[in-house]
């Protein structure tokens, strides 16, 4: 029915037939596509970010076949989003939006290229599309790099060595070739460091790795590049974030490739799809940007963390297997399935007279792809920057094909209509091909539509059977961490918000606690956000009210070490410092506390516990209504503490400071 409807919609606008019924009311305009006078800029691809941070956290423990299905929708060519670029965070142990990602070097004498999930994700992407481009970018750095200062540029040789080791490790341990490397996400750049990074890359035979700077704004990087010819020689791409489809004169004067190296970041409903459709075209039409990269790839983090569901698709329920292929996936396909990095844009103005835009690209071998979008203002607002008002009206567009495209006889047609009033969208449907008569064709365009017209016949809208229905996080959940060769360094579903919690094999314990979960960050990282002064990892369902959290704990730090278990935890991500909840702390000095905040300042109860360091103890926290109580090693330690806010939240574990500590036999009910 959708096909037929689309066919009827178009039926009256192919070639020289009678004009459409509504033709009288439509504004009409003509556009010329010609390569005779040369081509526009080279196209570098459409991509997405995993990281910045911990945005793929819950993806890794989806069961098959669902995990592979999600990856196919993202990366498999001519299937779904068919992404050209995958950009990942180089984990630095610090909070980078929705959690922390582990570094390959927690400490100066430490190297491990199997932590976290970005290595795995890059390999899965390459498995599906060997030509996908890979980008690495740090948000945070381990503390040792700054030697006590919260700054990565005081010892630029150390920072360059650290970043290059990540690139070398990607190749040595995973056979991954990193194509581009960034400087420091949305923070200051340092010209001396960038030059040293290029030198270090070249010294290690990594001449093919290109440098992007500065993943922030167009300025001051563009101005500095114009002043400093040596820097201009080592920066290959100027990457700006959330440019609002605009560039600046200095950026154009550098003659560098211009990318929107992070964009979108918008809730993935129909308005998010409209935002994405508009900027995918207009970043080039208005701003000469030849790549647009979405934050983020897939919303695989607890939805109540910051920027919930701001991914191209949603996969936040590994316990149920439920995921959702959201509209932005199919908007992406309109460009990615019919272009490739290395194609060129045609030199066209790209603005439609009735509002909206179009781009045209060619592979230089006779293929032509035209992408048209007619997104209205209110249906295409991105999260940032604010969008000035504009209007879009139904219109008839006539395209004249000239130069090497004059011989094109038919174009395949793919169509999406974002249905805001009706609530049902038609996404990425193949319509009847358009016949080109005497080098021209016409289209009647309505508002909030995307069309791809292309000589390529390889497009496909693929899919899988419906995944399982959504389910809340299990109301009874246990993990004893007893796994000898874990597939990932972190236990499933735990979402680290400050610090890093990893599987650990306890060589000194032949008893019940050989396999544990250990907090391993012992120095405050060079931060990107406001990490807490305590470490914390969340788990469970944000809607939980009444719960019992039980965990075996082991304080490693003498004298002032401490750990907690918690419930009704209400915050995380970039807001982790202001986290409230019910926190049950025990300390190496034999005391305990109950607080209503992570900072440990709002004390509800305190006293002596007899807990000591380097011994195992079992904590249990019971929260019912407005009352909480705590057990130590099975015996009541405190009871009937009155609690008011927060009224609901996650369970959590953590430590008093950046210190080693172990956890075992976690259980939440």
UniProtKB/TrEMBL annotation:
Q: List the active site.
A: 186 (proton donor/acceptor), 262 (nucleophile)
Domain Glycosyl hydrolase family 59 C-terminal lectin spans what residues?
496-669
Give GO terms: molecular function aspect only. galactosylceramidase activity
Main localisation, per the record?
other
Where do the Glycosyl hydrolase family 59 catalytic domain residues begin and end?
43-337
| Residues making up the signal peptide according to the UniProt record | 1-23
This enzyme's EC code(s) = 3.2.1.46
Q: Please provide, in alphabetical order, the Gene Ontology terms of the cellular component aspect for this entry.
A: lysosome; membrane
Q: Does the keyword Hydrolase apply?
A: yes
Under catalytic activity, the entry for this protein gives: a D-galactosylceramide + H2O = an N-acyl-sphingoid base + D-galactose; beta-D-galactosyl-(1<->1)-sphing-4-enine + H2O = sphing-4-enine + D-galactose
Top-level taxon of origin: Eukaryota
Q: Which InterPro entries match?
A: Aldolase_TIM (IPR013785), GH (IPR017853), GH59_C (IPR049162), GH59_cat (IPR049161), Glyco_hydro_59 (IPR001286), Glyco_hydro_59_dom (IPR035394)
Q: Where in the cell is it found?
A: Lysosome
Indicate the family of this protein: Belongs to the glycosyl hydrolase 59 family.
Q: What is this protein called?
A: Galactocerebrosidase
Q: Which organism is it from?
A: Chunga burmeisteri
Q: Give the source lineage, highest ranks first.
A: Eukaryota, Metazoa, Chordata, Craniata, Vertebrata
């Amino acid at each position: 029915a959708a096909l037929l409807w689309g066919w009827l919609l178009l039926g009256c606008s192919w070639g020289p037939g009678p004009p459409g019924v509504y033709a009288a009311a439509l504004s009409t305009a003509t556009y010329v596509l010609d390569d005779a006078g040369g081509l526009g800029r080279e196209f570098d691809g459409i991509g997405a970010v995993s990281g910045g941070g911990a945005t793929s956290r819950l993806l890794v423990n989806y069961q098959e076949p669902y995990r592979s299905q999600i990856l196919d929708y993202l990366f498999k060519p001519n299937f779904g989003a068919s992404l050209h670029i995958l950009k990942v965070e180089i984990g630095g142990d610090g909070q980078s939006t929705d959690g922390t990602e582990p570094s390959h070097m927690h400490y100066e004498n430490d190297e491990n290229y199997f932590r976290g999930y970005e290595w795995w994700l890059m390999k899965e992407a390459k498995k599906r599309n060997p030509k996908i481009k890979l980008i690495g970018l740090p948000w945070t750095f381990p503390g040792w790099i700054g030697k006590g200062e919260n700054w990565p540029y005081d010892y630029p040789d150390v920072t360059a060595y650290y970043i290059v080791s990540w690139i070398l490790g990607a190749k040595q341990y995973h056979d991954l070739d990193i194509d581009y490397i960034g400087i420091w996400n949305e923070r200051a750049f340092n010209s001396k460091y960038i030059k040293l990074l290029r030198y270090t890359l070249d010294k290690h035979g990594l001449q093919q790795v290109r440098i992007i700077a500065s993943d922030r704004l167009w300025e001051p990087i563009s101005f500095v590049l114009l002043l400093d010819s040596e820097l201009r020689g080592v920066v290959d791409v100027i990457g700006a974030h959330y440019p609002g489809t605009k560039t600046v004169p200095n950026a154009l004067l550098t003659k560098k490739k211009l990318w929107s190296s992070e964009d979108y970041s918008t809730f993935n409903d129909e308005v998010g799809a409209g935002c994405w459709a508009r900027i995918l075209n207009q970043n080039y039409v208005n701003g000469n940007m030849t790549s647009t990269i979405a934050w983020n790839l897939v919303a695989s983090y607890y939805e109540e963390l910051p920027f919930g569901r701001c991914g191209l698709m949603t996969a936040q329920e590994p316990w149920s297997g439920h995921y959702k292929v959201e509209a932005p996936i199919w908007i992406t396909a309109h460009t990615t399935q019919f272009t490739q990095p290395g194609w060129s844009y045609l030199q066209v103005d790209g603005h439609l007279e009735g509002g909206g835009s179009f781009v045209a690209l060619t592979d230089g071998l006779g293929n032509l792809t035209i992408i048209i979008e007619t997104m209205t203002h209110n249906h295409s607002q991105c999260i940032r920057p604010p969008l000035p008002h504009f209007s879009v009206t139904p219109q008839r567009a006539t395209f004249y094909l000239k130069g090497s495209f004059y011989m094109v006889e038919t174009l395949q047609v793919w169509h999406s209509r974002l249905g805001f009033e009706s609530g049902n969208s038609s996404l990425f449907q193949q319509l009847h091909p358009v016949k080109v008569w005497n080098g021209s064709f016409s289209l009647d365009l309505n508002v909030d539509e995307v069309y791809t017209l292309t000589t390529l016949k390889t497009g496909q809208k693929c899919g899988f059977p419906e995944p399982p229905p959504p389910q809340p996080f299990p109301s009874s959940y246990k993990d004893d961490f007893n796994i000898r060769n874990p597939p990932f360094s972190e236990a499933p579903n735990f979402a680290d918000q400050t610090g890093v919690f990893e599987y650990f094999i306890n060589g000194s314990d032949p008893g019940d606690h050989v396999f544990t979960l250990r907090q391993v960050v012992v120095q405050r990282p060079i931060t990107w956000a406001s990490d807490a002064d305590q470490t914390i990892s969340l788990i469970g369902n944000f809607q939980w009210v009444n719960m019992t959290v039980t965990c075996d704990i082991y304080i490693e730090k003498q004298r002032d070490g401490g750990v907690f278990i918690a419930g009704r935890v209400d915050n995380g991500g970039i807001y982790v410092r202001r986290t409230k909840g019910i926190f049950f702390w025990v300390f190496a000095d034999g005391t305990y506390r109950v607080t209503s905040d992570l900072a440990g300042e709002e004390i509800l109860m305190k006293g002596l516990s007899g807990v000591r360091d380097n011994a195992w103890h079992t904590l249990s926290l019971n929260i019912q209504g407005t009352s909480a109580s705590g057990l130590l090693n099975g015996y009541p330690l405190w009871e009937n503490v009155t609690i008011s806010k927060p009224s609901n939240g996650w369970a959590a574990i953590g430590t008093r400071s950046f210190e080693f500590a172990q956890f075992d036999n976690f259980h939440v009910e």
